[in-house]
Amino acid sequence: MSPVALEVCVDTLEGAWIAAENGADRIELCAALSEGGLTPSFGAMTAAAKLPVPVYAMIRPRRGDFRYSDIEKTAMLHDIEACGKAGLAGIVIGAVDDQHALDREFLAAALESTSLPATLHRAIDTVRDYEKAVADAIKLGFERILSSGQADKAELGMDRLASAVRVASGRISIMAGSGVNAANAPRILKHTGAPELHASCSKPKGDAPAPGISETRLGFVAATGTRDTDASLVQSLRHVMDIHAEDAA
């Protein structure tokens, strides 16, 4: 793995291969990135396990908030089991309770149900007490935290991310994500001290579809078209991250 790790989130197998072949150290495999990322299918997990870099699967049964019912939690535990059977390297999960704190009881059960390492996703950006949630994630045994510092974009949450890195003190990795690109990555890395970055490195796939085609008319494809991982964006981000690591050495 590179001195500063790059995780690329994808929702297609083609995108996963593009990311892996152009500088990503790890893949976050999702379905429906347009909804913030949902659990991918078992078939997608199995195919992605053949990638040359570690693949972590998103465990999120629906769009919306991160307060889950008992039925949803049971489904999530089954999805975690599927990740192990598919041969993936880890999981990405998060949940909060009615008090807007991490749902420690469920997250403990989720992590205890598998030997796979786990990333706590941006559910942490919705909690009331951010510093306590970082401490809770450490106690629960998460490998890393993906966060924007509770801002819309990581670039706007750099102060809180820097605080999280200090609180983590090497006990857990803080991965800055949301709106990360080659232009702002050096600033985010320098200000926060985060050892990892998370980005989609995506752009619109081809021209916007004609409004009259059946897929758009029937609502299967958005009028703005679809997005997918772009090799040049992955390469550009990897490049500036490597330069930052060299300058910091």
Automatic annotation (TrEMBL):
<protein>
    <recommendedName>
        <fullName>PF03932 family protein CutC</fullName>
    </recommendedName>
</protein>
<comment type="similarity">
    <text>Belongs to the CutC family.</text>
</comment>
<dbReference type="Pfam" id="PF03932">
    <property type="entry name" value="CutC"/>
</dbReference>
<dbReference type="InterPro" id="IPR005627">
    <property type="entry name" value="CutC-like"/>
</dbReference>
<dbReference type="InterPro" id="IPR036822">
    <property type="entry name" value="CutC-like_dom_sf"/>
</dbReference>
<keyword id="KW-0963">Cytoplasm</keyword>
